[in-house]
């Protein structure tokens, strides 16, 4: 294994990958640097050369999730119509949540390490939010930055709510028809557009 007697960078990467594997299999509470070392077959102290604490390796894992999320949003389809563009961003968000449930849960359903202690993690998170803010700012009549942020928080909270619901079995347990669930994305995004001033056709 590269982590055993390999280059320092190899061990760092191996630690990050193993940390994610532990979280995926046993949950966030199971993560520890000692367990990472044990699974990699290295000394208990080896991971500490790269990560001073459990929070540091968790911040790295979460930061990478945010970076991947932001990159995914950047690659989305675009439209010259600002409301259509907002809808495309919303679809991309929901698509990411469906395809990458573990990373989505890490970003939005995990108690994060102290942001003040891990600014790089938050830089990547802020980049993702900036994509939404910039898209909202292009809508007609958007004024001060505070107003843009309020609208961005509104759109985010609605789409996040739908993404979170669709990751559970709640809709099945409530007996909601599959046809209704299939229409939920388009309906939700249409409602967001209307709430933010999209003219009626």
Report low-confidence residues grouped into runs of 5 or more: none
Could you state the order of secondary-structure elements as H and E? Answer: HHHHHHHHH
Rough shape?
globular
What number is the mean pLDDT? 92
The first-level CATH class name of the largest domain: Mainly Alpha
**Helical segment count:** 9
The share of residues in helices is 55-70%
Count structural domains: 2
Largest sheet: none
- What share of residues are in beta strands? under 5%
Intertermini distance = 61 Å
How does this model look, in words?
The protein is mainly α. The protein contains nine helices and no strands. Helices cover 68% and strands 0% of the residues.
Summarize the structure.
The model has no long low-confidence stretch (mean pLDDT 92). 68% of the residues lie in helices and 0% in strands.
List keywords for this structure.
globular; 201 residues; mainly alpha; 2 domains; single chain; Tetracycline Repressor, domain 2; Arc Repressor Mutant, subunit A
Topology:
Elements: H1 8-26, H2 33-40, H3 54-74, H4 82-99, H5 101-108, H6 119-137, H7 145-166, H8 170-173, H9 178-195
Helix pairs in contact: 1-2, 1-3, 3-5, 3-6, 4-5, 4-7, 4-9, 6-7, 7-9
